[in-house]
Task: structure prediction
Amino acid sequence: MSYQSPPHGVPLTLGALRESRWGASPFRGRSVRDEIRGNLLAAIAEGADLFPGIRGYEDSVLPQIANALLARHDFILLGLRGQAKSRILRGLTGFLDEWMPIIAGSEVNDDPFAPISKYGRERLAADGDRTAIGWVHRSDRFVEKLATPDVTISDLIGDLDPIKAARGGHLLSDELTMHFGLLPRANRGIFAINELPDLAGKIQVGLFNIMQEGDVQLKGYPVRLPLDVLICFTANPEDYTARGKIITPLKDRVGSEIITHYPRSVELGMEITAQEAWIVRDGPAPPARIPEFIRELVERVAFEARGDKRVDRRSGVSQRLPISVLENVVSNAERRAMAHGERETVPRVADLYAALPSITGKLELEYEGELQGAETIAKELIRRAALRTCQDRIGDDEDERLDRIVGWFDQGSALKIAGDERAQAAIKAFALVPGLLPLVHDVGLAPVADAAMEVAASELVLEALAAQKRISRSEESGWSAHRGKRG
Result:
């Protein structure tokens, strides 16, 4: 039964349904795969956004999914964590009709004109055209199950219910004593299994018949349910060896295997992160103004991690990493702005170090990385990301000005600024470094007299120099001359 109220005026009896526009529709009785196919073709013809909110797959994954649906295939999305696999599957409901009629009270969404359960057939036989009709919204036609080793056939298919038998006075062999599992309850809808390799092999075997023949049997009794369901899976390649595998006969029955991927450019990653991160916040905190180079820096941390040999590439680096980091960066800047009574929340590079917990918890390390420690690696990733971000904005023609900045530190000068220092005080300290503020102004990193932006830009330049080992950076002494040059 739908969690949403059906629209006003829909037929509520079989007779009324038969006489309605829906009952006379040529689409009446079509399978869920044909329903999805028809609605998908209509959406393509209209030029609609097939998967709203999904970015980066327009020329790869999404056309392949559309092809699979048009071919009426069951399919599997194969990819590392944080690649929007589950979100894509949930978006499939957009290709279902908004409302679907069922025999009221049916646990398996019985079609009023072709019921598959004994309950549905008995209702029709007893009530005829007076049979009550229920309406199910498209959002309630998606059934999702996370595969875990303890999932049983009874969970997926169903089992006998002795209590139901006793209360109804039925024999155990009577279909009315059956407790239906998730698959029958997904009839005339979409059934999704996440992390398929975690499903025990003998349970995967139980999916063969539904995928090949379109029906299931319950507990060996002569009860066959010709289900109408689209089945989709997700899997992580790491799981094939780490925790389990997809057995070959099941894999052979999956019509399409579609490989997902991480954003292929920093710019695209930034778009996804901006879309997903919670940065527009209510409440008394000052509104956030995030420098574009800070957004890029956050995204490059993920890109640097994905290319680092100390990070386990089989596990991947989820897109959730830059999303969580950006949220944490804004939170730290928000806390600083509130403490100092500032009118804006402007993140700076120091806020990325405050966001280390959002990085270290999302890195699966190889043996070498475990020896060095997640925090050490995360700090190095921030510096390398700062260097790449800075190099995009400061060309080789500025080397002489950078040398002048490095020279100031080589003369024995040092600069220590607390991460929670107010912008006006921090900018006075950065002004002591010859040429630093004019540089960030001239290359467009920060406008003149915008203290918050100037602080963020100055920190970016110094982080980049630290990444090149031209100066040193430590939490104890801040920025200073590189130890190697001191001898």
Notes: The radius of gyration is 30 Å.
